[in-house]
């Protein structure tokens, strides 16, 4: 062959072979590095897995941990796979992990977990630092986790408002951390880039300029950053130019200006974040109630009358096991029935509901209500039949026009925004409107998840085995607007409830009508 036609070419081949050897040596060196890297990454994942498994419930009861666990499937595992794939894309274990990963959480789950974090921020005024530190694992305190939460807000949800504090936290944490060698990289420039544009989008021009200054310090020859800065400065100047100078208003005297400024200052000071974002008053009140802001939560007036009592309501079946009634609120009247359910009954109810929560039940993706729920028919099990009879005895209402029992489970960050249980379109309701609601608590909730009544200012903490009862209609059949209520987001733990809604039909002799206005 051509190869031997010239001995000088062999020299060349030696040289080529030498290069090949060098290339393979280099490959081996890189491969060893790679294997070491994979080993380190695997050790880290193993450690995190074991850490979580030590007490799965405790670990998962914190929303940031749930986020991190979910994120691992979409980031850390992908990262590890990529390191394995780099030069051996056909290795079987890659397909193994890829196959397994496809059964795990998906991008939409990660988005949902991040959204839950933003919701807790909005409702309870938590800062990212508080959420991160609450997770109490060393792994949580990493800049790139916060960067990812911010990035999801910024790019996926187009939510610059929530992106900012998470990017800020990423920036704060960056100092303690090197990102070298990770497949997904992130650096200070990238964080600041997000912060500058997000601040601009949120009309925080001062911040946008400050972040851009930091960018210019990092990348002095970037035309984009200097241009951006000039643009933000231009907008800022335009915004704050005194009105008199625009020519279309009379020039104000200095006194006028000062007076006006003072007024504006007071107004801005009084406004909190919700005001500035023009949040609906119901939502503002809902958040304040969930936080337990002073003056917003109305407690019962110091009882002249006994609020707790044993009652048998002249019902034979309650003589031996009376109702433990507590008047939790007067206007509207909200009654708590303690220990209305036994632990065994609760376990049975959850058992009946569980299969449909996961299969035919669906995770509702509406912003309005984040929970899984399913319906249980009246005669599905003895425990259900017994429950309907008990509620009939407690309330004195006819159970003939009652809906199926609705069982719902809220996960971390799960909530139900302010709503009425009654309908305004009675024509669509068979058996008339929902005259009353019995809301059973099938679990305690470690943190958050209170039921709040928006206009009344009532706040009720879920207590496993108890239920709250109220009338949605006045005796004259008119709807009672004071019954607007909601479920606060679950901060930690999980919340189970069951709803039983009684309808108007059949109640004519049980709850006689009245022509009174507010009875
Ligand atoms: O879970 C709660 O506290 C409230 C639930 C509720 O209002 C409903 O399901 O209609
Ligand atoms: Fe409700």
List the topology elements.
Blueprint: H1 7-54, H2 56-60, H3 63-74, H4 76-85, H5 92-103, H6 107-124, H7 128-135, H8 143-156, H9 160-174, H10 188-201, H11 205-218, H12 223-240, H13 254-270, H14 273-276, H15 281-291, E1 308-311, E2 323-329, E3 334-338, H16 343-358, E4 372-376, H17 382-395, E5 405-410, E6 416-419, E7 434-441, E8 447-448, E9 451-453, E10 458-460, E11 467-471, E12 485-487, E13 490-492, E14 495-503
Antiparallel strand pairs: 1-2, 2-3, 3-11, 4-5, 5-14, 6-12, 7-11, 7-14, 8-13, 9-10, 9-12
This protein binds 2-oxoglutaric acid and fe (ii) ion.
2-oxoglutaric acid binds at residues 408, 416, 421, 439, 451, 485, 487, 497, 499.
Structure description:
The protein is globular and about 105 Å long. The chain has 519 residues and is α+β, with helices and mostly antiparallel strands. 30% of the residues are buried. The chain folds into two domains: 16-186, no CATH class; 308-503, q2cbj1_9rhob like domain (Jelly Rolls). It is built from 17 helices and 14 strands. Strands 1-2-3-11-7-14-5-4 form an eight-stranded antiparallel β-sheet, with helices on one face. The chain has a four-stranded antiparallel β-sheet with strand order 6-12-9-10, covered by helices on one side. Strand 2 (323-329) and strand 3 form a beta hairpin. Fe (ii) ion (FE2) binds at residues 419, 421, 485.
């Amino acid at each position: 062959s051509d190869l031997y036609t010239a001995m000088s070419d062999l020299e060349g081949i030696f040289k080529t072979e030498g290069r090949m050897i060098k290339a393979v040596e280099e490959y081996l060196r890189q491969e060893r590095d790679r294997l070491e890297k994979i080993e380190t990454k695997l050790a880290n994942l193993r450690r995190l897995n074991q850490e979580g498994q030590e007490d799965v419930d405790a670990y998962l009861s914190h929303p940031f941990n749930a986020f991190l666990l979910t994120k691992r499937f979409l980031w850390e595992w992908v990262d590890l796979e990529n390191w394995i794939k780099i030069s051996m894309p056909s290795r079987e274990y890659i397909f193994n992990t890829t196959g397994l990963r496809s059964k795990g959480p998906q991008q939409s789950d990660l988005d949902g977990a991040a959204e839950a974090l933003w919701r807790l921020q909005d409702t309870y005024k938590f800062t990212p630092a508080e959420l991160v530190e609450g997770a109490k694992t060393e792994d949580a305190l990493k800049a790139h986790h916060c960067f990812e939460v911010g990035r999801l807000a910024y790019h996926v949800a187009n939510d610059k408002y929530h992106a900012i504090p998470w990017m800020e936290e990423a920036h704060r944490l960056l100092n303690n951390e090197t990102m070298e060698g990770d497949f997904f990289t992130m650096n200070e420039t990238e964080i600041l880039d997000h912060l500058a544009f997000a601040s601009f989008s949120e009309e925080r021009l001062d911040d946008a300029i400050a972040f851009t200054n930091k960018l210019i310090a990092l990348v002095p020859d970037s035309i984009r950053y200097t241009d951006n800065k000039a643009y933000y400065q231009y907008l800022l100047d335009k915004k704050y130019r005194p009105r008199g100078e625009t020519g279309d208003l009379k020039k104000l005297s200095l006194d006028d200006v000062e007076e006006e400024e003072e007024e504006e200052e007071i107004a801005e000071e009084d406004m909190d974040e919700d005001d500035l974002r023009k949040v609906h008053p119901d939502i503002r009140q809902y958040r304040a109630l969930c936080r337990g802001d002073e003056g917003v939560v109305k407690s019962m007036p110091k009882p002249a009358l006994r609020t707790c009592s044993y009652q048998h309501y002249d019902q034979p079946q309650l003589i031996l096991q009376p109702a433990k009634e507590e008047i939790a609120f007067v206007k509207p009247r909200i009654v708590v029935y303690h220990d209305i359910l036994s632990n065994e009954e609760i376990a049975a109810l959850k058992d009946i509901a569980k299969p449909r929560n996961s299969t035919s039940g669906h995770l509702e993706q509406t912003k309005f209500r984040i929970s899984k729920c399913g319906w249980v028919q009246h005669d599905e099990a003895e425990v259900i039949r017994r429950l309907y009879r008990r509620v009939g005895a407690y309330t004195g209402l006819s159970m003939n026009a009652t809906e199926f029992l609705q069982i719902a489970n809220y996960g971390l960050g799960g909530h139900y925004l302010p709503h009425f249980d009654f309908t305004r379109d009675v024509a669509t309701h068979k058996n008339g409107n929902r005259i009353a609601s019995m809301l059973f608590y099938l679990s305690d909730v470690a943190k958050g998840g209170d039921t709040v009544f928006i206009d009344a200012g009532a706040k009720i903490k879920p207590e496993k085995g108890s239920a709250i009862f109220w009338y949605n209609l006045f005796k004259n059949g008119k709807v009672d607007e004071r019954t607007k209520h909601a479920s606060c987001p679950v901060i930690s733990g999980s919340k189970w409830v069951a709803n039983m809604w009684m309808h108007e039909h059949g109640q004519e002799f049980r709850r006689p009508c009245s022509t009174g206005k507010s009875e």
